[in-house]
Design a protein that fits this description.
Blueprint lengths: L24 H12 L8 H15 L8 H7 L15 H19 L6 E4 L8 E4 L3 H4 L1 E5 L3 E2 L6 H16 L5 E3 L2 H6 L7 H8 L3 E10 L2 E10 L5 E10 L4 H15 L5 H11 L4 H14 L4 H17 L4 H16 L6 H17 L4 H14 L3 H14 L4 H13 L3 H14 L4 H13 L3 H14 L4 H13 L3 H14 L5 H12 L3 H15 L1 H4 L1 H10 L3 H13 L23 H8 L15
Parallel strand pairs: 3-5, 3-6, 4-6
Antiparallel strand pairs: 1-2, 6-7, 7-8
C-alpha cells in the first residue's frame, strides 16, 4: 500500500488557495422564495415548510440541530416524549420526497438560477451550489436619488417619488437584488467615485439620473453604471409632459434597466408592479407623499402619513398599496406610543383585510398581517405563516425579512432571527432602524457589551434616533454601568420632558445601582408629573420589576395584556424582567399572555 507524501510545512512563502465565497444570504433567500412559489412546490405546504426550516437553520449556523428527532418535533409537530424513529419514518419519507421535488424543480423550472439548493441522500443539511455564471445571474444594483436640475423646489418630491417607485418596480424582477430605499436615500449628495459606493453597499451596478424642466414638460435622464469600472453601460433620456403619470415614467425606466441587464422574463413582473400603481392620479399623489413621510420614522410623520393614506383610499378604494400603507402607518404610530390604542389596531386590521382582498399577493400587506398576529394577538404560528407568505410574494424587499426577524427574535429563535437580519441588511445596509434592531438581537441574547457598542454607533451617526439612544443606555444597565446609563437617561428626559421613557430609565439606573430610595423617589415624582397613563402599563411593570416589587409588576403586566399592549410581546426576552424569571408566578404569566416559555439567560435557549 502506497502512502501519500506528507504535505509540506507552511512557511509563509505561499498562500493556500482560498475557496470561492458561498452564495450570499440574500441570494439563497431569493432562491428559496422562488422555489416556494413554483408550480412544483405551490401545492406542497409540508415540503415548503420543511425546506424553509432546513435552509434557515443551516444559514443561521445551526445545522447541528438538523436531526431526525428535532425535525420530527419542530416541523412535524410530534410529541418528543413519544416519537420513535424505528416506528415513525415520516421524517425520512418526506425528506426523500423533498429531495425528489427539488430535483424535478431544477429540471423543469430552475433555468437561470444563480444558486441551487440541494439535499443529499441520507442527510438533512442542505447544500447551496453556485450555478454557472452565478455572478451574472444575480443582477445587483442601487438606484441613487434622482437629482432635480430644474431649479424648481416643487420638483424635489417628484424626484424622490420617481426614485422610490423605480426601486419598488425593480424589486419585482425575479433574481434581482435591489438595495432598499433607506440606503438609497442615505447616499443622497455623495460625491466622488461611484466605485466606492458600489463597494460600500455591495452591488455590481448603479442607476443614477436627473430631472430637468423643459417647455411644457420634463426630461428624465438615467444612466446605468458598472460598479467595478465606473463606466457608463447605458444612458437614455425620457421626455414627458408636465402632467404625465409618474407611474408611466417609472415603468418605462424600469423596463429599460431590466433590458440592459438582460433580465429575461422581467416584463410580466414589471407589468404587475405597474398595475399596482394604476390608481386614480389624485390617490397616487397622496400615496407618494405618505410614503415619503413614512421614511422619517417619527410619530408626527406616521400620523401625517396615516392621514394621507386615508385620503388616498377615499379617493380610490381599490388602491391596495394605499390600504397596506395605511396599516403600516397605524402600526408604526401605535408602536411609538407607550399607551395601548385599540382604535389604531382596529384600523390596521381593517386596512390589511382590504389590501389582501384587493391583492392577495401583496407582500407588504402580508408583512403587516404578521406584525398584527404576533404583536397584537401573540399568535406566533399565524405570524410566521404570514411572514413566510410575505417573503414568498416579495423576496427582494428588505422590509419583509426585517419583519420576520422581528417575529423570530421575540419568539427566542435568535439564530434564525440573525439570518433574517443578515438578509435584510444585505438588501438595505445603511438603514439606521434596521441596524438598531439587529443590535437589539445582541441585547436580548444578553451580550450587553456588543449591544451597547452597536447602539452607540447608530446614535453617533443619527443623533436624533431616540430608540438608539434609549437602547444604548439600557444596554449599559445590563453591562453593569448604571451611572453611565443614568447620565444618558437624564439627557433623554431633558430633551423629551413630556415622554416617560427618560424618567423610566432614571428609575432603572438608580435601582440597578442599588439606590432603591432614589429610584422610588424618581418614580413617584415622574408619575405625579406625567401620570401613570403616560407611562403605560408595560413601562410601569418595568419600573416595579427593577424595584423588586414583583406583585406590582405582575399586576401591571396583567393590565398590559388586557389592553392588548403591543409592548408586551417583548416580555419573554426582555432583560428588564430578569428579576421575575425565577418567581413561581412567571411561567403561568407567560402562558396567560400567550408568550413562549423560554429563558434567554441560558445560551442556546429558544422557543419550540
Amino acid at each position: 500500500m502506497t502512502r501519500s507524501p506528507p504535505a509540506p510545512a507552511h512557511d509563509g512563502s505561499a498562500t493556500a488557495p482560498v475557496p470561492p465565497p458561498g452564495p450570499s444570504p440574500a441570494l439563497v433567500a431569493g432562491e428559496l422564495a422562488r422555489i416556494e412559489r413554483s408550480s412544483t412546490f405551490r401545492r406542497s405546504p409540508l415540503h415548503r415548510r420543511l425546506l424553509r426550516y432546513l435552509v434557515t437553520r443551516t444559514l443561521a449556523g445551526d445545522a447541528a440541530r438538523l436531526k431526525e428527532s428535532v425535525i420530527a418535533v419542530e416541523v412535524f409537530g410530534r410529541d418528543p416524549a413519544r416519537f420513535d424513529p424505528r416506528h415513525d419514518t415520516s421524517v425520512r419519507v418526506e425528506a426523500r420526497r423533498l429531495r425528489q421535488k427539488l430535483e424535478r424543480f431544477y429540471v423543469r423550472e430552475g433555468d437561470g438560477a444563480a444558486v441551487a439548493i440541494r439535499l443529499a441522500a441520507g442527510g438533512y443539511v442542505p447544500a447551496f451550489e453556485r450555478r454557472p455564471d452565478a455572478a451574472e445571474a444575480l443582477a445587483s444594483l442601487v438606484v441613487l436619488p434622482f437629482v432635480n436640475l430644474s431649479g424648481e423646489a416643487a420638483l424635489d418630491a417628484w424626484c424622490d417619488s420617481l426614485t422610490e417607485e423605480l426601486i419598488d418596480a425593480l424589486v419585482q424582477v425575479p433574481g434581482m437584488k435591489v438595495v432598499a430605499r433607506t440606503t438609497s436615500f442615505g447616499l443622497r449628495g455623495r460625491s466622488g467615485d461611484v466605485r466606492a459606493i458600489a463597494r460600500e453597499v455591495g452591488v455590481a451596478r448603479l442607476v443614477e439620473g436627473s430631472v430637468q424642466a423643459r417647455a411644457g414638460g420634463r426630461r428624465v435622464v438615467a444612466q446605468l453604471i458598472d460598479g467595478a469600472s465606473g463606466l457608463h453601460l447605458w444612458s437614455h433620456a425620457f421626455e414627458s409632459d408636465a402632467g404625465a403619470d409618474l407611474a408611466a415614467v417609472v415603468h418605462a425606466l424600469a423596463r429599460a434597466v431590466a433590458r440592459s441587464l438582460a433580465r429575461n422574463g422581467a416584463g410580466a413582473s414589471l407589468d404587475r408592479a405597474a398595475q399596482r400603481l394604476s390608481a386614480k392620479a389624485e390617490a397616487r399623489e397622496l400615496y407618494f407623499r405618505a410614503k415619503y413621510l413614512m421614511g422619517r420614522h417619527t410619530p408626527a410623520s406616521y400620523r401625517d402619513a396615516a392621514a394621507l393614506y386615508g385620503e388616498a383610499v377615499a379617493a380610490d378604494p381599490a388602491f391596495a398599496l394605499a390600504w397596506a400603507g395605511k396599516a403600516h402607518a397605524a402600526i408604526g404610530l401605535h408602536g411609538m406610543s407607550a399607551t395601548p390604542d385599540g382604535a389604531a389596531i382596529a384600523q390596521a386590521r381593517n386596512a390589511v383585510a382590504k389590501a389582501l382582498a384587493l391583492d392577495p399577493e401583496l407582500g407588504e400587506a402580508h408583512a403587516a398581517a404578521a406584525t398584527l398576529a404576533f404583536a397584537a394577538d401573540r399568535d406566533f404560528e399565524r405570524a410566521e405563516r404570514a411572514s413566510l407568505e410575505a417573503i414568498r410574494c416579495a423576496p427582494s424587499r428588505a422590509y419583509v425579512h426585517h419583519s420576520y426577524a422581528w417575529t423570530l427574535m421575540f419568539a427566542g429563535r435568535f439564530a434564525e432571527a440573525g439570518h433574517e437580519f443578515d438578509v435584510a441588511r444585505e438588501l438595505d445596509p445603511l438603514d439606521p432602524m434596521l441596524r438598531v434592531h439587529q443590535a437589539l438581537l445582541a441585547f436580548y441574547r444578553r451580550d450587553f457589551g456588543a449591544a451597547a457598542r452597536r447602539f452607540a454607533q447608530v446614535a453617533a451617526d443619527e443623533p436624533a434616533n431616540l430608540v438608539a439612544r434609549v437602547l444604548h443606555a439600557s444596554a449599559l444597565l445590563g453591562a453593569g454601568a448604571p451611572d453611565e446609563a443614568l447620565a444618558l437617561f437624564e439627557a433623554i428626559a431633558r430633551d423629551l420632558p413630556g415622554d416617560s421613557i427618560g424618567p423610566l430609565g432614571v428609575v432603572q439606573a438608580h435601582a440597578v445601582a442599588g439606590r432603591a430610595p432614589q429610584a422610588r423617589e424618581a418614580l413617584d415624582a415622574a408619575v405625579t408629573r406625567l401620570g401613570a397613563e403616560r407611562f403605560g402599563p408595560y413601562r410601569m411593570a418595568i419600573a416595579h420589576a427593577r424595584l423588586g416589587e414583583a406583585g406590582e409588576a405582575f399586576a401591571w403586566l396583567d393590565r398590559a395584556a388586557a389592553a392588548r399592549d403591543l409592548n408586551l410581546v417583548c416580555l419573554a426576552v426582555d432583560p428588564s424582567f430578569d428579576a421575575l424569571r425565577d418567581d413561581a408566578r412567571w411561567p403561568a404569566a407567560l402562558a396567560r399572555y400567550g408568550l413562549p416559555a423560554i429563558d434567554p439567560r441560558r445560551p442556546g435557549a429558544s422557543a419550540p
